[in-house]
UniProtKB/TrEMBL annotation:
Alphabetized UniProt keyword annotations: ATP-binding, Kinase, Nucleotide-binding, Transferase
GO biological process: positive regulation of transcription elongation by RNA polymerase II
Species this chain originates from: Trifolium medium
Name by which UniProt lists this protein: Putative serine/threonine-protein kinase
Domain of life, source organism: Eukaryota
Amino acid sequence: PMTSRVVTLWYRSPELLLGATDYDVGVDLWSAGCILAELLAGRPIMPGRTEVEQLHKIFKLCGSPSEEYWKKA
């Protein structure tokens, strides 16, 4: 297993914030998307101070996972 403590907090993917240790290039694509959005907006789009706050910002911007998703997890 790999560590979930990778990537600068503002660009960390939801799965990493939830503690995933088995991840792939998708976490890098998430980070790249955050950086592109930041370049377009001219400011950080989700500047969280903690992992919990970061997840909240992601869910607020992108929507929360459905109850069905959580049941599968």
